[in-house]
User: Which sequence fits this backbone?
């Protein structure tokens, strides 16, 4: 029988493959709970190991997500999952609020998807599960993507649509 709860006391250090300015983070105590909640509620397979958590300046997150020279404002990207197993958050992220933890929930979906080598028709299809999980997490606390992050149904449809 596999154990779904893993040791959260393990300190995760940034692997050498990430951006040089990344600051490693201690995983929040709820990381195991979030992983298990996602596995049970969104039919996602368990990951063999936790992601590495680190912070970066907001401009570097935009570059990772959209590429160099992007016109996206740095404040618009709050976290990015790198398929090497690292979740990068904006500097100052502590995981100390429901909203911040919802971002971790979103990125943990990507970690579980990648760990299971799941394939998708398009990036939007991959995002659909992550946003659905983030919304469900926020609703547990009487919040929503729209009230917390300004992501309305039209924006969500655009972000999760396959356009090819």
Assistant:
């Amino acid at each position: 029988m596999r154990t779904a709860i893993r040791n959260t006391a393990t300190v995760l250090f940034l692997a050498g493959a990430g951006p040089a300015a990344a600051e490693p983070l201690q995983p929040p105590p709820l990381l195991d709970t979030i992983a298990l909640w996602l596995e049970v509620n969104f039919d996602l397979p368990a990951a063999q190991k936790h992601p590495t958590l680190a912070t970066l300046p907001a401009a570097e997150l935009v570059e990772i997500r959209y590429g160099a020279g992007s016109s996206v404002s740095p404040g618009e990207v709050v976290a990015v999952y790198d398929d090497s197993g690292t979740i990068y958050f904006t500097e100052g992220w502590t995981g100390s609020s429901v909203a911040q933890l919802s971002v971790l929930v979103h990125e943990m979906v990507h970690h579980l998807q990648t760990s299971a080598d799941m394939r998708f028709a398009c990036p939007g299809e991959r995002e659909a599960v992550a946003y659905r999980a983030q919304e469900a997490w926020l609703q547990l606390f009487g919040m929503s993507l729209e009230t917390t992050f300004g992501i309305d149904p039209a924006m969500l449809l655009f972000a999760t649509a396959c356009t090819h």
